Amino acid sequence: MLHTVKHSPFSHHSLAQALRHLQPGDQLVLWQDAVIAATLPAWLPRLQPLADDGRLYVMQEDLSARGLAPIIGEPLTMAGLVELIVSQGSPTAW
């Protein structure tokens, strides 16, 4: 299953909730303000297992718009997101 998180980890608990609900093989996309988590050392321990398995994606456009570079995660374009949705089905949005 594909999960997407859009809220900053500073203002919402949606990323933490999504991580609690992920099942083996699920993929996670951070977009909008959630991309901030991929730049924060405090989130590395929780996101690293997903990144190691190639299941963590970070929207490149959202990183660029905020002037950020990810520490962790696979950069993803909008075209790549569409491909993931086509292959995985409708995502669970947090």
Automatic annotation (TrEMBL):
GO terms for biological process: tRNA wobble position uridine thiolation. This is Sulfurtransferase complex subunit TusB. Pfam families: DsrH. The gene is tusB. One of its GO terms (cellular component) is sulfurtransferase complex. InterPro entries: DsrEFH-like, Sulphur_relay_TusB/DsrH. It comes from the Bacteria.
